[in-house]
Structure formats: structure tokens, C-alpha cells
């Protein structure tokens, strides 16, 4: 028998209140996007150096219509995917090993931290000389840049694992493989996702920077070439495309990350 | 596979460095790069901290803007370099805009997180001794948050370095990043290596100083 | 031994007076009446404890004297003035650690005076005196991180005392400490209080602690709360170490326990037993 004089209201109203808030937030987010586009449109009327949103999207649509963009889109996406996969194949096991071993941690922690502070694009000329101008150099650049964040978040994830879990695994006599697949990977899932998201972003950025610098094909090259030819609508259109790819990729990964985080 | 021109003996790089460092142009390049980094970081700090305070004070704004900020964090404005080049011209302006915006986001985010992490009891305490809002910010909030904000400030500085050098590298008229890219195009591999070495030394130095500062702040304030 | 409310609320000017106060919170799910109606007086030089079941609004009561909360009904007045916000003549000690971890013990104790605008030399002088009083001499330059939980609470007490408050408000100040530390620091508090004789409003869960420290114990009912009974603790002062074993101490403790048990059962539901 409670003496609370709380006016009761069901769990249902609480849930619908939460849902209403989520919807309201999303409406606001959409409004922010619209405001950004409006600001762009406003700026384009004020300056010749800013192409209008409509012109830019038209220019982009034309590139799609005549098929000339696909070669560049392919080159960029290929470089991002290959680079990211290499970074993941190297970064996850290495980060895991550094996190598990005190010795490796002592050796590699300062190195990784130092490497993180160096603008990695500066090594691109070397990669160009090794791989020649092309997707190979771009992929290598992406891999080199993305491997460090992936390592760092994997290491952090391993170190943050509840020390009781390995004990639990031993008490259940799990095999080493079972320990990794059934205990470590699920326990680390959120930080692995952080590594994947940041790794993807960094791979993407570095491919674009590398393409700005030197490439045979790619969206970055196309954008900078359009700048060189003062074809501003095309340049703005491609940058919108790049931002959209980045935003979409990030939001998907971010949503997965949040879902995992809530569940665990 | 590795071409002859790629592998320059370290001795030759050192000799080139010794020749390059005393030149006026090297001084101008370093000065340009350092000024750009400092200006960008200062802008990032001056805008980032108030933005973080705003996101903390107005949680709804934080919630709504979070996806944009997270995207911006991982996907810096450097995509817009050609746009800024078109609008502002080939000078330090576009680089500063990009490096500052890269530096701003980690600073704003950690400021918000740090302020959220402050124990509510400190607010209650300040209230109970009738501290003015000014006293609350200066004597309680900022000292409590500083050690928590510093990692974000450090990251902001590193991002300012990365943004500046990367943009100089792509396209600029001056700066150590520009010089590394320039000598690649000139096929002058020894000088390219020399400037890459300068960038590495600069970054490692910056990181070392910041790490030392961070340790000091943690020791004194935590 | 005890007197039943309502008592005469017309005290002296210098007293702390609760005049028919009530507190209603609007929450997400409706409206909660935390405090129904409380009247009472904390007289000059008295140590008053408030006990009652969890969630009965004890802390709410204290926050209203401290000016952190405004009653939705009635008034609290100190020295004849209605409390409308935090006052310079009240000082609070909280259950949680409220030391500022970046300041030394000395600067922590001087914090309240610093905010008040007291010049550096003066505030350090009072702070040093209080540090000595709470038994932390030699720790002036330590930081809270180097102190135990009990020592941190002494810092908080010294900070409050340094402000020379008319009323010292203590919200379960020893609630987060282990049993031994708690008894020890309780004795210390009494030793300090014998010297300063501030008015104290002391919130606690611990009946023994309340009896040992207080002149009066107010027993609050379950929510919406009223002061169910005021029990006068007629044990002689000063109270040396063996006080807990006096028959009178046991009697008072049993009586309070009976009162609190009835209220706790109301909150926890029929048949609930406290350990």
C-alpha cells in the first residue's frame, strides 16, 4: 500500500512521449538540413563564385546521365573499400594483440599515439612512387590512414573488457576460439563499431585528399579538375555527392553503433 | 619494384636538411605553417568551448545537432576545400577555415561531455554558498572541467596540425606541407624526403609537448 | 518525554521557524506531494535531528532552510526574515563528497568565505582555525584525492563552520561512510559542536546517531509527510563515550525505532520488515 499521491499515468504515455520526442528531433534535424540548403541558395545569389543548388544538382545529374561519372565513382569507392579492408585486416588483430599483451602495449602505445599526430597524407608521395598514380596508391593511402584509429579503438575495447569475463570463460572451459567468438567479440562490439566508423571515415577522407593531389580517376580528382576549369556547378555538385556519401555511410554506422551500445 | 629514385639514403636527406634549414624560404615556410596552425587552433578553441557550453546548457540542441557533429567529426569540412578555394582564393584563408573547423569539433564535444560529467553536488554546493553565476563558472565549473576538456583540446590542436599540413600539401603557395608535395612534382626526391622529415618532427614535437601538458594538468587538477 | 504537534510556532526572533510548510513537486508522470504540513522551531544553540522513512522529504526540508528549494506552501524564516534563496548565514554539508578536488584542503575550507568576498588573509586565518578544530592540522596543503572519505567530510564540515553560520544544515553527512568511521566522526562532531554551539539541523537514517547527537529528534511520517512526533533527548551533556550504554539511551532509541517502523511499513507495504 503506497502512500504516494502520485497521479498515476501508464507506461504507454511515457513511451509515446519518448516517440513524440524522437519524431520532433528528426523534424528539427530535417529543418537544419533545409536551412543549410537555403543558406547555400542565398549565398549563390550574392556571389558568382557560389553556384546555386539547382545548377549544381543539374550538373551532377548530367554527369550521371551521360555516364561519365561512373568511372570516377568506382575508383573512389574501390579505393575506400580496399583500403578499409586492408586497414581492418591489419588493425583489428594488431590492436587486439596490443590490448592483450602488456609488453606489446608498452612498446606500441607511444608509437601509435605519435603516429596518430602525424598528418598521414604527407606519405602519399612515397606511396605514389611505390604504386604509381592510380587506385593502388589511393587504397594504400586509405589503409595507412585508417589502420591507426582501428588499432586504437580495438586496443581500448580489449582493455575495457570486464576482467571477470575471461574468468567466466575459463570456468566454463571454453576453447580459445570460443572465448574470442563468444566472449571477447560480443563484449567488444561497441568499440569495434567505433573503430569501423572512424576507420571508414578516415579511409574516405584520405582517398579524397589523395585524389585531390594526384589520381587517374576519382571524385576528388573530378572536383578539383572542375575547379581548375572554373566549372563551378559540377564542382559543387560533386562535393554535395561526396558529403551525401559520407553522411549516409556515417549515419548508418552510427545507428548500428548506438543500437549495439544500447543492447549491451 | 621500388624505383631507384624513391630510396634516398638517409645521409643524403640529412645533408639536404642541413642545407635547407638555414635558408630564408625554409624560415618563411615554417612560419607560415605554424601561424596557420596557431590561428586555426585559436579559432577552434574560441568557438569550440562556447559551442560545447551551449550544447550542454541546451540539451535539445545537443540531441538535434549530434548526428551532424558526429559526421563532421569523422568527415571534416576538408571536402569543401575546392569550394573555399573558389570563394577565397589561393591563400591561407581556406586552410584556416578547414583546419579551424576540424579543430573545433573535438573541443566542443569534449567540453559538452566534460560539463555533463560534473557532479550535481558541486552545483548544489555553489548554490548553498550563494555563489554568483560568474563565481560558479570561474571557481567551480571550469576548474572541475579543465582536466576533462584537455584531451579534446589536445585532439583539437592535432587536428589543426593535420588539417593545415594536409591542405597545404594538396594545393597552396607556401608552407612545409606544400613544399613536400611540390618537390614530389618536381621529382626532387631528396628534398621531398627532407620536408616529410620536417613534418614528422614537427608533429612528434607537438604531440610530445601536449602529452607533457596533459600529464601536468592531470596531476595538478585531478 | 515527547510532545505532540502542532506546537507553538511563535519562537524567538533569532530562531529558525517552519510555518505550515508544504512541498509539491510536478513530475513527468503527475504531481507528488512530498511534504504535507510541517511546523516547528529550531531554537538557539540546539541540535535538532530529523529521521523518517526513505523518501519522506527530510532532505527537502533541509533544502528549504538552505534556500535551495522554495516551499509551495507556508514559509521558513530565520531571524525573523523569510528565506527566499540561499543565505549567507546558513551553511550546508552534504552526504556526497563535495570537496573541490583541484583545491588544497586550506582553499577548500576557505571556499565559502572566498565566495563571500572575505580578504585572503582573513579567510585563511579562519580556515586554519577550522582545520585545527576538525582535527586536520598538517593536511592544509593536501588535496582531497589524498584524503580518506571521513577526512573529506571533515573538510566539508570545516568549510561550513568557517562561514560562522547561524544554522548548520547537515544532510546525512556521514551516510556514505563505513560504520567505524561514522561513529568516530560523530563523536568528533559533537566535540566540535560543544565549542561552537551553532544551531544544527541534521538529517539522518541512523537512530542511534540521532539520539547520541541531538537535543531534539523530529520523527517524520511517510509521504506526504508531517512531523509525527518531536522527541526531546534529555541525556546530559557533554556525552562521553559510554553514553550509548545508558538505559535512558536505550529507551529513547527503542521509542524512536517504534515510531519509524510504523512509518517505514507504510512506505514498504503491509508485512514489510526492516532488517
TrEMBL record, chain A:
The keyword DNA-binding does not apply. Its main location: membrane. Belongs to the binding-protein-dependent transport system permease family. Residues 73-253 form the ABC transmembrane type-1 domain. It holds the Pfam family BPD_transp_1. It is a multi-pass membrane protein. One of its GO terms (cellular component) is plasma membrane. It comes from the Bacteria. Keywords: Cell membrane, Membrane, Plasmid, Transmembrane, Transmembrane helix, Transport. The chain crosses the membrane at residues 26-43, 77-99, 111-134, 140-161, 194-215, 235-256. GO terms for biological process: transmembrane transport. It is found in: Cell membrane. InterPro entries: MetI-like (IPR000515), MetI-like_sf (IPR035906). It comes from Arthrobacter keyseri. This is Transporter permease 2. The keyword Transmembrane helix applies.
Automatic annotation (TrEMBL), chain C:
InterPro entries: AAA+_ATPase, ABC_transporter-like_ATP-bd, ABC_transporter-like_CS, ABC_transporter_ATP-bind, P-loop_NTPase. SMART domains: AAA (SM00382). Keywords: ATP-binding, Nucleotide-binding, Plasmid, Transport. Residues 16-247 form the ABC transporter domain. GO terms for molecular function: ATP binding; ATP hydrolysis activity. CDD domains: ABC_NrtD_SsuB_transporters (cd03293). It holds the Pfam family ABC_tran. PROSITE patterns: ABC_TRANSPORTER_1, ABC_TRANSPORTER_2. SUPFAM superfamilies: P-loop containing nucleoside triphosphate hydrolases. This is Transporter ATPase. It comes from Arthrobacter keyseri. The gene is ptrA.
Amino acid at each position: 500500500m503506497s502512500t504516494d499521491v502520485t497521479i498515476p499515468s501508464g507506461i504507454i504515455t511515457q513511451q509515446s512521449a519518448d516517440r513524440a520526442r524522437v519524431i520532433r528531433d528528426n523534424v528539427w534535424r530535417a529543418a537544419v538540413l533545409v536551412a543549410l540548403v537555403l543558406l547555400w541558395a542565398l549565398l549563390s545569389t550574392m556571389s558568382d563564385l557560389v553556384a546555386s543548388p539547382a545548377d549544381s544538382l543539374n550538373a551532377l545529374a548530367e554527369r550521371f546521365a551521360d555516364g561519365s561519372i561512373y568511372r570516377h565513382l568506382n575508383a573512389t569507392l574501390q579505393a575506400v573499400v580496399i583500403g578499409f579492408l586492408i586497414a581492418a585486416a591489419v588493425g583489428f588483430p594488431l590492436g587486439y594483440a596490443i590490448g592483450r599483451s602488456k609488453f606489446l602495449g608498452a612498446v606500441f602505445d607511444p608509437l601509435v599515439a605519435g603516429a596518430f599526430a602525424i598528418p598521414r597524407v604527407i606519405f602519399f608521395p612515397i606511396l605514389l612512387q611505390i604504386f604509381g598514380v592510380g587506385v593502388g596508391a589511393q587504397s594504400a593511402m586509405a589503409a595507412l590512414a585508417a589502420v591507426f584509429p582501428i588499432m586504437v579503438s580495438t586496443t581500448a575495447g580489449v582493455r575495457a573488457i570486464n576482467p571477470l569475463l575471461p574468468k567466466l570463460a575459463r570456468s566454463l572451459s571454453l576453447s580459445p576460439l570460443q572465448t574470442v567468438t563468444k566472449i571477447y567479440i560480443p563484449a567488444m562490439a561497441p568499440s569495434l563499431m567505433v573503430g569501423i566508423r572512424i576507420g571508414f571515415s578516415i579511409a574516405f577522407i584520405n582517398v579524397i585528399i589523395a585524389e585531390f593531389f594526384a589520381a587517374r580517376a576519382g571524385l576528388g580528382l573530378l572536383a578539383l579538375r572542375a575547379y581548375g576549369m572554373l566549372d563551378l556547378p559540377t564542382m559543387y555538385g560533386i562535393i554535395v555527392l561526396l558529403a551525401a556519401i559520407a553522411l549516409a555511410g556515417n549515419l548508418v554506422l552510427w545507428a548500428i553503433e548506438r543500437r549495439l551500445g544500447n543492447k549491451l | 619494384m621500388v624505383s631507384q629514385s624513391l630510396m634516398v639514403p638517409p645521409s643524403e636527406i640529412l645533408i639536404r636538411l642541413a642545407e635547407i634549414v638555414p635558408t630564408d624560404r625554409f624560415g618563411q615556410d615554417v612560419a607560415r605553417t605554424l601561424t596557420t596552425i596557431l590561428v586555426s587552433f585559436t579559432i577552434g578553441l574560441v568557438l569550440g568551448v562556447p559551442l560545447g557550453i551551449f550544447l550542454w546548457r541546451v540539451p535539445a540542441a545537443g540531441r538535434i545537432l549530434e548526428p551532424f557533429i558526429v559526421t563532421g567529426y569523422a568527415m571534416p569540412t576538408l571536402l569543401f576545400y575546392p569550394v573555399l578555394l573558389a570563394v577565397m582564393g589561393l591563400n591561407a584563408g581556406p586552410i584556416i577555415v578547414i583546419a579551424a573547423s576540424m579543430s573545433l569539433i573535438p573541443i566542443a564535444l569534449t567540453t559538452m561531455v566534460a560539463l555533463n560529467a560534473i557532479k550535481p553536488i558541486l552545483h548544489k554546493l555553489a548554490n548553498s554558498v550563494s555563489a554568483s553565476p560568474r563565481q560558479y563558472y570561474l571557481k567551480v565549473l571550469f576548474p572541475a572541467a579543465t582536466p576533462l576538456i584537455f584531451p579534446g583540446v589536445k585532439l583539437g590542436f592535432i587536428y589543426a596540425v593535420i588539417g593545415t599540413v594536409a591542405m597545404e600539401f594538396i594545393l597552396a603557395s607556401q608552407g612545409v606541407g606544400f613544399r613536400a608535395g611540390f618537390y614530389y612534382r618536381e621529382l626532387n626526391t631528396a628534398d621531398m624526403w627532407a620536408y616529410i622529415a620536417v613534418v614528422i618532427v614537427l608533429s612528434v614535437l607537438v604531440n610530445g609537448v601536449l602529452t607533457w601538458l596533459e600529464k601536468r594538468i592531470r596531476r595538478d587538477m585531478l | 518525554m515527547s510532545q505532540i504537534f502542532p506546537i507553538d510556532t511563535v519562537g524567538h526572533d533569532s530562531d529558525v521557524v517552519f510555518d505550515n510548510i508544504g512541498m509539491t513537486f510536478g513530475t513527468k508522470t503527475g504531481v507528488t506531494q512530498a511534504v504535507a504540513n510541517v511546523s516547528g522551531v529550531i531554537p538557539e544553540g540546539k541540535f535538532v535531528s530529523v529521521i523518517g522513512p526513505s523518501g519522506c522529504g527530510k532532505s527537502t526540508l533541509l533544502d528549504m532552510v538552505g534556500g535551495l528549494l522554495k516551499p509551495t506552501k507556508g514559509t521558513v524564516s530565520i531571524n525573523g526574515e523569510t528565506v527566499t534563496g540561499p543565505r549567507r548565514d546558513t551553511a550546508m554539508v552534504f552526504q556526497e563528497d563535495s570537496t573541490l578536488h583541484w583545491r588544497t584542503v586550506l582553499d577548500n575550507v576557505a571556499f565559502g568565505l572566498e565566495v563571500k568576498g572575505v580578504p585572503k588573509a582573513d579567510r585563511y586565518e579562519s580556515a586554519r582555525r577550522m582545520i585545527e578544530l576538525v582535527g586536520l592540522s598538517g593536511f592544509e596543503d593536501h588535496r582531497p584525492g589524498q584524503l580518506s572519505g571521513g577526512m573529506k567530510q571533515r573538510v566539508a564540515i570545516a568549510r561550513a563552520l568557517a562561514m560562522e553560520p547561524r544554522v548548520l544544515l547537515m544532510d546525512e553527512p556521514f551516510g556514505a561512510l563505513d560504520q567505524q568511521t561514522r561513529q568516530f566522526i560523530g563523536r568528533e562532531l559533537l566535540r566540535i559542536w560543544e565549542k561552537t554551539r551553532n544551531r544544527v539541523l541534521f538529517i539522518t537514517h541512523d537512530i542511534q546517531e540521532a539520539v547520541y547527537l541531538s537535543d531534539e529528534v523530529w520523527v517524520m511520517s511517510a509521504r506526504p509527510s508531517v512531523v509525527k512526533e518531536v522527541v526531546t533527548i534529555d541525556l546530559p551533556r557533554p556525552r562521553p563515550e559510554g553514553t550509548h550504554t545508558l538505559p535512558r539511551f536505550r529507551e529513547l532509541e527503542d521509542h524512536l525505532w517504534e515510531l519509524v517502523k510504523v512509518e517505514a511499513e507504510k512506505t514498504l507495504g503491509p508485512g514489510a520488515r526492516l532488517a
